[in-house]
Design brief:
Elements lengths: L3 E9 L4 E10 L2 E7 H6 L3 H4 L8 E5 L1 E6 L1 E2 L2 E2 L6 H12 L3 E9 L3 H16 L5 E5 L21 H10 L4 E6 L12 H7 L3 E4 L6 H18 L10 E3 L15 H11 L3 E5 L8 H11 L4 E3 L12 E5 L2 E6 L2 E4 L22 H10 L4 H6 L3 H6 L17 E5 L4 E6 L2 E3 L5
Length: about 425
């Protein structure tokens, strides 16, 4: 007999919070989500008999992270086996991220191909949704934590080799529009869409016009795929908006202005690393107000130190120092315990539920913050209705939190996941 799972609490749905809500799942799928009153009317009374009200908890869809380099001491750009990578996957899963892209960083082509092959094993096993390649076709000036020696001009051959090494699981790739070989006919952007990979604009010192040209090209290409057998999801994204980009200036608006405009008309979804380190909370709140939650996706940009202690870590070929939870590229002066690290920020150390909590504390409505960490990234991946939602038929991925949005229970495919501290 198929086990029926019932979870009760304040149910966070797409546009509202149901104070006494319930989710019923069977066979790893949601069969009902709504108010207890409606559940009783729908005949779920027997399943609810032994499940008391839980007004001090929130019930959310499992979170979806599009940009994640690792956690629990494991760095996805550095793993040499699928088992090694699973430490990072499980670290985030235990905090409610039930769907995840494993992100690579800029490295030598042969290294990228090896790492992609390893992570593809996890995708084939259903442990991750796929891969995100951050680089190597990025701006030298806005490279952030990427190794300058490994940056290169756009290479269609490398795109095809990387997509092949990932065995169809390369989902997104961050590219800078001003880098030679990225935009235009026969360029990287075109090759990515042809390979079924979603381009993401980022790590760029380009002008507004250069960003607009890439957005226009990718948007047209994605629309064209809707008329063919290969359907690439979308829209395209902006990799951690503001971070790794020429700053917005009223006389030189740069890529940020182009991204905000594209998001406002529905041609782009912008990533925000709203962890309290990468962006001021007012910036996060303002972007939600400007473009709306359906065009924002909250991400972690997490690295190996997520969930573990301060110290020294590796992020691809770069050494990282984490102090007070802030990761920066190690400089000759940098050392754990130093009052100020001088290197650029090198990813995040938060879990996605922490990012949601920061956004809510910063003034983003709870429903909007949750949607931008669930349904919106699911839509970008072409998984709308499958994950990131609690509608009937969806995968039974749930995150139960306390009133302060701290995890107390996680289910994936309707099965309990070990939660740290629960």
């Amino acid at each position: 007999m198929t086990e029926v799972v019932v979870v009760r609490g304040r149910l966070v749905q797409a546009s509202s919070v149901v104070d006494d809500g319930v989710v019923v799942a069977s066979g790893g799928r949601v069969t009902f989500a709504g108010s207890v009153v409606d559940a009783l009317e729908a005949g779920h009374g027997p399943a609810l008999e032994d499940v008391p009200p839980a007004p001090g908890t929130f019930v959310l869809p499992g979170l979806v992270d599009l940009h994640n380099h690792g956690g629990g001491g494991a760095s996805f750009p550095d793993v040499t086996s699928a088992d090694e990578a699973m430490a990072g996957v499980l670290e985030h899963r235990a905090h409610g991220t039930t769907t995840l892209l494993a992100s690579l960083v800029t490295a030598q082509p042969e290294v990228l191909l090896r790492r992609a092959a390893v992570l593809a094993e996890l995708a084939e096993a259903g442990e991750i949704e796929g891969l995100h390649a951050e680089g190597p076709f990025l701006s030298h000036r806005r490279r952030g934590a990427h190794n300058p020696a490994d940056l290169q001009e756009g290479s269609v051959e490398l795109v095809r080799d990387l997509a092949a090494a990932a065995r169809g699981y390369l989902r997104t790739m961050t590219i800078a529009p001003e880098v030679a070989g990225v935009t235009g006919p026969g360029g990287v952007a075109e090759a990515l869409v042809e390979a079924g990979v979603l381009p993401s604009l980022g790590h760029t010192d380009g002008s507004t016009e250069q960003a607009e040209a890439l957005i226009e090209q990718v948007t047209a290409a994605l629309r064209a795929t809707g008329r063919t057998a290969r359907r690439v999801p979308g829209p395209m994204t902006a990799t951690h908006l503001f971070n790794g980009m020429r700053p917005l200036h009223h006389r030189q608006p740069g890529p940020v202005a182009a991204c905000l405009a594209a998001a406002s008309r529905g041609d782009m979804v912008v990533e925000l690393v709203g962890d309290g380190v990468h962006l001021d909370p007012a910036t996060v709140r303002s972007v939600f107000d400007m473009v709306g939650p359906d065009q924002v996706v909250l991400v972690t940009d997490a690295m190996a130190a997520a969930g573990v202690a301060d110290g020294r870590y590796e992020l691809g070929p770069m050494s990282v120092v984490v102090h007070d939870g802030v990761a920066r590229i190690a400089t000759p002066q940098a050392a754990p315990g130093a009052p100020e690290e001088e290197g650029p920020i090198a990813g995040g150390t938060a879990h996605l539920v922490d990012v949601v909590r920061h956004a809510v504390r910063g003034g983003v409505p709870l429903v909007d913050a949750v949607r931008s960490a669930t349904a919106v990234p699911a839509r970008v991946l072409g998984l709308a209705g499958e994950v990131g939602t609690l509608e009937p038929g969806a995968r039974a991925d749930l995150l139960v939190t306390d009133a302060d949005l701290r995890p107390v229970r996680v289910l994936r495919h309707g099965v309990n996941v070990d939660v740290v501290g629960a």
